[in-house]
Design a protein that fits this description.
It is built from seven helices and six strands. The chain is α+β, with helices and mostly antiparallel strands.
């Protein structure tokens, strides 16, 4: 009986040590916290990078990407869950456009605002660290209606 208890304890301790190593490998999902009357959405997005700055920039890209291609299914049900582009394989079809759109310092930044992030959230953002890098969660406001207008002007979507 004593041997079983010791073996079980070692298994529990060994498996809990692995949590530190997988944090940046875990795929966190973008979560919606609400909508504004101006057509924007407040979301919590996650990104992974080699440091906090890279992870925050990746979180911004992930939030815009999710709104355009996937829709946001987690969080407040008042949010628009449908993606802006419902066309199958749209990312591949308009690959040249979206590669430029999501480039570092690209056009996607025009549709991201840190307006909803409070000072205490800036100091203590959700983040996880592993050997491979950092995963960081951040509150963002995505200007969904402006993003939709831009995609219509660029003839990516029709409406």
């Amino acid at each position: 009986m004593k041997n079983i208890f010791i073996t079980a304890s070692l298994i529990v301790i060994g498996s809990s040590c692995n949590l530190y190593n997988i944090s940046s490998s875990y795929a966190y999902k973008t979560e919606c916290f609400g909508t504004e009357l101006d057509g924007s959405q407040t979301v919590k997005a996650w990104g992974t990078g080699r440091n906090r700055f890279d992870a925050v920039e990746q979180a911004k890209k992930n939030a815009v990407n999710d709104i355009i291609f996937k829709g946001i299914n987690n969080g407040d049900q008042s949010c628009q869950m449908r993606p802006l582009i419902i066309e199958v394989q749209a990312r591949e079809k308009y690959e040249d456009y979206f590669n430029v759109f999501f480039a570092d310092e690209g056009k996607y930044l025009q549709f991201v605002s840190l307006k909803d992030e409070r000072i205490l959230q800036k100091i203590d953002r959700d983040w996880m660290k592993s050997r491979d890098g950092v995963s960081n969660g951040i509150m963002l406001r995505i200007l969904r209606s402006d993003l939709k207008k831009q995609l219509m002007n660029d003839k990516i979507i029709n409406n």
